[in-house]
Amino acid sequence: xxxxxxxxxxxxxxxxxxxxxxxxxxxxxxxxxxxxxxxxxxxxxxxxxxxxxxxxxxxxxxxxxxxxxxxxxxxxxxxxxxxxxxxxxxxxxxxxxxxxxxxxxxxxxxxxxxxxxxxxxxxxxxxxxxxxxxxxxxxxxxxxxxxxxxxxxxxxxxxxxxxxxxxxxxxxxxxxxxxxxxxxxxxxxxxxxxxxxxxxxxxxxxxxxxxxxxxxxxxxxxxxxxxxxxxxxxxxxxxxxxxxxxxxxxxxxxxxxxxxxxxxxxxxxxxxxxxxxxxxxxxxxxxxxxxxxxxxxxxxxxxxxxxxxxxxx
Length: 313
Hints:
Blueprint: E1 18-22, H1 34-42, E2 47-54, E3 60-62, H2 93-96, H3 109-113, H4 128-135, E4 144-149, H5 159-175, E5 182-186, H6 189-198, E6 204-208, H7 236-242, E7 247-250, H8 257-265, E8 269-272, H9 278-287, E9 291-294, H10 297-306
Parallel strand pairs: 1-2, 1-9, 2-4, 4-5, 5-6, 6-7, 7-8, 8-9
Antiparallel strand pairs: 2-3
């Protein structure tokens, strides 16, 4: 397997467990926002996980759902949008800039999941370029990007759409010369095939979540774009290795010591998501994972330190 320098920022061992801010630090800051990313970097967490989709005018933007979340998006008059009304691929970037994504509606199920998240105003959906430019500022040389390419279930199997999405994202990463600090990350393993075809110099990170796990409120399910787990004839680490991946990113409930050891024997890194509760953080550390993706990076920092470990090599 080829060696990719990008992987070093996600490699654990020797008393190190890497820490990745999920959508910035969703538990305490508005998700997938520049404000959240800057906060996460400011507390000493240099690895950022985030989601990228394309607008109608082919601008890669950072937002989780293809259809904007009603409980996290406001019109200019501060009224919450109607759930399911606005799809990113049907809007130009200028249309998105009229919307405010700086807070959660605390009366909704999704809002109640994150009662400690700050409520800000005049926060916009960022372009991928905005985050890349942040990573290129002086003093940001340690920032690494776990860039999740979101695959639209309505375009499943559409190879032309896959190619266009990957081309648009890679063009911006390459324009900022950040290939050496970026991993391409997705639940859609077919999309990762296209990533490897277009960017053989960049490692791929394979997300997985077994079908028995319940989807979180307010989350667009990844299960329709992921692999057919029932059809797999090998373990998940072996499947990722056989598909050409360099990192396996399982849902935390699917992590075990034996699977982590198997992945390491195959030369894969293991970074698990999204681990928020202290007993779960402690369990995956004990299982030997390389890294932890968390909505509460400060909470994970304290758990790592309590075990006499650190998140920076």
